[in-house]
Amino acid sequence: MNKNIPYELIRSSRKTLAIQISADGSVTVRAPMRCRKADVEAFVREKSGWIVRTQEELGRRVREREEKKEQLPKWSREDYERHQRLAVQVLGQRTAYYAQKMGIIYGKITIRDQKTRWGSCSAKGNLNYNWRLILAPEEVLDYVVVHELAHRREMNHSDRFWSLVEEVLPDYKRRRSWLKKNGDMLMER
């Protein structure tokens, strides 16, 4: 493909060339400090087919998401408030249940309105959850709860961390997959 592709060039101490395509379709090329501009241009030309296909796929996903978003029923402020109250109740109950099952102590629970995160666990043991979890299937909500509680033992995503999650939810990968696949739609709320 012989298309001129605009891109941002970022040089660093890395050893290889790499291309990143953002959600908006913009292209960033990461290159070693001493890499010649001609080599960068050749690399972008060589990868241009993949770049264009990826940009088209991203555009298709954005259009698809917008169509789905238009089909969602409109919510009133009371709808949001009702779901947030329900999230406080349900996430509190599920956290208490799994914490006891896992033998884990936690601090306070905060329900947040976040656009990019489902949950987090602070070093002090406080748990934060996105209220939109209440819109997910219960098994997915439980996965996020167990995930955050497992961070009380392992503040990372090591093999030991995933083993803790798997002890409680042997099918956690299926639940996590659902969230990765469908989570964007829940975030549209």
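Next protein, fold it too.
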Amino acid sequence: MQRRLSDYLVISLKGIAMGAADAVPGVSGGTIAFISGIYEELISSISNVNAALFKTLFSKGIVSFWKQANGNFVASLLIGIVVSYISFMRLAKYLLENEPVLIWSFFFGLIVASIYFVGKQIKTWNVAVVIALIIGACIAFYITKRPALAANDNPMFLFFAGAIAICAMILPGISGSFILIILGAYKTLSDAFHDFDIKKILIFTCGAIVGLLSFSHLLKWLFKHYHNITLALLTGFIFGSLNKVWPWKETLTWHTNSKGIKTPVLQESISPFSFDGENQIVLAIGLIILGFLTIFILERLGSKK
């Protein structure tokens, strides 16, 4: 596939959107990749990292290696993701603590639009596809109802948390950051980025690389052999995740750390008119619409030839 410099700039912008989404617990960068038309190329590129690729490096040189690895695409996307994730994680932390209704409203609109655009790619509907859709929705909804575990900064735990979370990050609908919250690793990781704790960041990154390379092969195989069923399952994941990104919530249980800082452990979605505090409903609806329209823009970019 021949691409111009402007094409790679667009790919980097999609990476920025993916990184920003993954930094928010409840939104998946995989959803952004899917909507923007790069999901299957991303999965295929990741799964190409194997022994044969490195054999090409030693036998044919760096140019052949880079071409076989789809290096320009991967590098452009990765630059956008990394820059956005590291920078937006701080902003996301601030917004979640100070303006939770507004940030969740934007992402709720984004997810609602995603359901339509991912679901419309299912070409054939049958019993198996409907069952896959229901199963995906039930799994994602169940995950959103799970309480978070206590924070844990054990090195081995961080490694496996990275491996599990990265699998969720590349699945549309299931948020890697939310998986980190459930595992009790989100605050540890966000603090590591905030304090530039290189050791913890490297341990997490190594786990993420192992998980990513392993899981991408399974996804590539599923798309090749069960394309419609896989799409239905992913659409179900996105639909089930709506509970997590509903803007108005009531906190049922809290966790208080050694410094006396309280963080929500278990929350329940409620009506905006039952919300304890300013529901900001007019501004929230505006942000839901903005999130909805953002997906139309990304989808338009993804459909351009």
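About the second fold: The chain has 15 helices and two strands.
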